[in-house]
């Protein structure tokens, strides 16, 4: 047999026997899935993480994930740089397991595994169910998601999401929450990175508060919060139409 052909055949056999599973991929990301995980679930995982992991500045390094199942439990195994992961709080990985359980796997427990390039686990975060804060009903448009609380309707939430999607057109997911405080004033909260927010002028967020009010809420006065990923505010702006 031709040596080149033999070499190619061997490499193909090695890949086929790698045990990684079937694969779906797009852009910088690939998701392998094994028995018990459907192609639809793998594609849903792919589409869930693409906007979340995409770098806004420059090219995104390749991301590799493997999904498998052990009984009723899903294993979310991701190739990881441990020098980066070691600097992160453990709660981040337990939270990830809870988010994947709710958003992708219909409430099934999800273990998060950090692995080497061959999907050999280095560290495992076994699923621990968290009580989820009452963020409200979720609606979305593109990469904008809006959680609606209190007396706001789904229609109003969709209007806000559509406006923000068109106005901001973000590369990754941005989360908002709209509701009312104890005094009945409208409150809009936006999840933001504190360090990056501090580097921007206040006028940027003041202007966004004005646009949300005038373009989606008929000029209603509002309180605009920059918040962490649990919608705990760290900076506040107010807007009142003159």
Written overview of the protein:
The chain has helices at residues 3-16, 39-53, 82-85, 90-103, 154-168, 194-198, 202-216, and strands spanning 22-26, 29-33, 63-70, 73-79, 110-115, 121-125, 137-141, 144-148, 174-180, 186-191, 222-227, 233-239. The protein is α/β, with parallel strands linked by helices and 242 residues long. The longest helix is centred in the first third of the chain and has 15 residues, at 39-53. It is elongated and about 65 Å long. Residues 1-17 have low confidence and may be disordered.
Alpha carbon gap, first and last residue: 84 Å
Helical coverage, percent range? 25-40%
Query: What is the subunit organization of this protein?
Result: single chain
Widest sheet: strand order? 1-2-3-4-5-6
Unreliable runs: 1-17
Largest sheet: 6 strands, mixed
Strand content: 25-35%
Radius of gyration: 22 Å
Domain count: the total is: 2
Characterize the overall form.
elongated
Mean pLDDT: 87
SSE arrangement, N to C: HEEHEEHHEEEEHEEHHEE
Structural class: alpha/beta
Number of helices: 7
Question: What's the β-strand tally?
Answer: 12
């Amino acid at each position: 047999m031709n040596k080149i052909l033999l070499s190619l055949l061997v490499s193909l056999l090695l890949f086929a026997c790698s045990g990684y599973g079937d694969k779906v991929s797009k852009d910088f990301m690939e998701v392998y899935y094994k028995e018990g995980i459907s192609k639809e679930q793998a594609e849903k995982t792919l589409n869930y993480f693409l906007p979340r992991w995409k770098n806004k500045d420059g090219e995104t390094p390749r991301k590799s994930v493997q999904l498998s199942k052990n009984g009723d439990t899903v294993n979310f195994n991701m190739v990881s740089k441990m020098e980066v992961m070691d600097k992160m709080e453990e709660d981040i990985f337990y939270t990830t397991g809870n988010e994947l359980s709710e958003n992708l796997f219909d409430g099934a427990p999800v273990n998060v595994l950090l692995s080497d390039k061959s999907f050999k686990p280095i560290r495992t975060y076994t699923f621990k169910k968290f009580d989820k804060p009452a963020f409200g009903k979720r609606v979305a448009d593109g990469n904008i998601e809006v959680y609606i609380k209190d007396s706001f309707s789904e229609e109003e939430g969709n209007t806000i999401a559509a406006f923000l999607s068109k106005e901001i057109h973000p590369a990754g997911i941005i989360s908002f929450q709209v509701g009312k405080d104890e005094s009945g004033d409208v409150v809009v909260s936006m999840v933001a990175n504190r360090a990056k927010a501090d580097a921007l002028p206040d006028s940027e967020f003041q202007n966004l508060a004005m646009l949300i009010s005038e373009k989606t809420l008929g000029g209603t006065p509002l309180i605009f919060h920059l918040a962490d990923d649990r919608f705990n505010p760290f900076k506040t702006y107010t807007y009142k139409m003159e």
